[in-house]
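Summary for the steering committee. The consortium agreed at its last meeting that each partner would contribute one worked example illustrating the joint modelling workflow. Our contribution is presented below. We chose a case with several input lines so that the handling of multiple components could be demonstrated. No manual editing was applied between input and output; the record is shown as generated.
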Amino acid sequence: MDGVADRPSPKIKLMTPLQYAHKPSIDLLAAGGVTGIMDPVAPGIPVGSDTGHLALLGYDPHVYYTGRGPLEALGAGIDLQPMDIAFRCNFATVSDDWTVVDRRAGRISDEEAEQLSSVLVNLSNRLSLDAEVMFKHTVEHRGVLVLRGDNLSEKVSDVDPHKEGVKVQMPRPTDSSENARRTSEVLKEFLIKSKEILENHPINIERRKKGQKIANALLPRGAGRLPNLPLISERFGVKGAVVAGGAIYKGVCRAAGMDVINAPGATGTINTDLESKFRTAIDALNRYGFVLLHIKGTDSASHDKNPELKARFIEKVDMTLGKYLDKIPSDVIICLTGDHTTCSTVGEHRGDPVPILIHGQGVRIDEIDRFDEFACSKGGLGRIRGLDILNILFDLANITKMYGE
Amino acid sequence: MDGVADRPSPKIKLMTPLQYAHKPSIDLLAAGGVTGIMDPVAPGIPVGSDTGHLALLGYDPHVYYTGRGPLEALGAGIDLQPMDIAFRCNFATVSDDWTVVDRRAGRISDEEAEQLSSVLVNLSNRLSLDAEVMFKHTVEHRGVLVLRGDNLSEKVSDVDPHKEGVKVQMPRPTDSSENARRTSEVLKEFLIKSKEILENHPINIERRKKGQKIANALLPRGAGRLPNLPLISERFGVKGAVVAGGAIYKGVCRAAGMDVINAPGATGTINTDLESKFRTAIDALNRYGFVLLHIKGTDSASHDKNPELKARFIEKVDMTLGKYLDKIPSDVIICLTGDHTTCSTVGEHRGDPVPILIHGQGVRIDEIDRFDEFACSKGGLGRIRGLDILNILFDLANITKMYGE
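What follows is the complete predicted structure of the assembly.
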């Protein structure tokens, strides 16, 4: 449950959403399992979705993280190659002199963004420089941009200024290499050409007529290459799968060699089809040794500073869990946790530890019978790190090989 | 107590052996000390005897571990030199074409193995290649093999195929160096010559007559060099000693610069003379600043999937401790723990944390009055690592020097 942990909020009687929510099925798992608190990377370090999920899968982001761009691209379904340079990218509204009017292009719809994307697909052929450019829309105003070719570099500056009312800086090389200079040139040419095309696209003509902001520019950021992760299958001899809505979660899991399973109706929002996700994940247990079920709504409610909504969403997850709990085979080790704390008061990821519970055969059951930040701090696992989780789970499943003789 | 920690077992009322055993003296130490749980290397990582004991003595095996061979050789009493290549070795039964019939040579007795060893001692002189070969029997069908000479390498493959019914692969170099090629040649010649000699040894002629399997081949594995450990005496300015039955425990301690003290009747099995070991260890406290008493029976019972026997053995240790507790000077810091969890259900080392207790002057006594996996998880030490133990003990004894000024 993304960002499930929180700080106490005056809006819900100085409790956290996990304390405030009525969640009998989750608490049943806690009562029959072992609990603890977990720092995704280290105490007090607030992590992003990318670094957090890398850590949860056992990859120290200080070693393996190469930026969000390539993980998003993988999650969007692009078969990223080791030499590709990937960026996250927004559709935005900019003025004639490239001043940012709206970083989200008036929050254009998925359908509009999808149609706008289609005209960008063949733009590579019209570039003077020899590189293939791929753009793929993900959700709302967001997408990924991938440069493919010889002699490219990830050492290029962010184009997205991350705020409005300022002028877009065209990409610049961030080191003195010829490859970085060349990559900046390719990207710049693509951005300028794509603006010309987007300005006159029927979707934007229509939006202009309606007085809506147009999506006439792409703002890439977070250039990076594919990270080189030891695969889950190599580390544990087991094939893994992920059920998730958002691209970044799928992307991290793909980078770890896991399969992405699409659950119908999984949107990565608070209105996702939880039943579909649970059914899909439980079914995947028949074919995979490890399944990660990612649920985003808890994080979204926290970013909206709505701890009450977060508690209600936790209750919805709990009800769904209750319905499917007896469908999970008894030899499965279940772990419930989050990738970070998201504080509903400030609406941001924070570095407080996250409660974790592990339930299954051989577990040293402790006396904790509630899953929240306070109760779990007294649990039998003590305080562990994100990097430890898969080692603990695969060891409980008697899969891990001994280190030494 | 080797492998003392466990998972709950249905054979003993869903308790662990430490919970099931009646152990008033150990629990008295817990009540008057501070407790916690300890991950030998890291949460969820199951360690072997070698890596586990390295970690318990403060040596990160990821940095210092060079294979079990050299540690076994040290433990067997060989004065291993830095350039020596050491192997673990089994007496085995092989057919004429070197197919493994029995990896343990019909479990030959210590006496038989000892006599067979004696004919291998002078075999070096008959080798065409210039290297000294030492073989030393340890227990039952086991021994250690050491190659000494210039230009040798540990980069040689295991000869022991680790299963029966398959042909032995003669040693091969595992890198492209001339030294590895040469080492493989020396080892191969030794193995072929030793088979000729063993086949016609009176012990084997006798065994053949009785219809028993003969010990006609040596199967080396785990080539390695002496690890380069900072000595206990250098780290803490104190001389250490070990009282143990098994070769590997003595070997790790010798590598750390500790003296090996042999207790009469210490066998490294469940029938060891515990009183002799306690007397020897307590006596050693008069001459050494640090004494490690290693007790193996707990681990053996777990490998035999016998949690009840493990509990009974813990009770035997407890009774012996009770008898000798008042012989331990009051200024001694006592620490009781294990090198890993051995799960009596699966009969394997597993990565769950191990309970630990520390008793002595200056210790911050907690409220825990039982020494087991569950109670100690609530102890005042929290969750620590194997690498921390000696630092904590020498600090409590006011021996450790300040880091910084």
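Chain B touches chain A at residues 7-8, 16, 37, 41-52, 61, 65, 68, 88, 222, 343, 345-346, 348-352, 373-374, 377-378, 382-383 (CB under 8 Å). The first strand of chain B starts at residue 34 and ends at 39.
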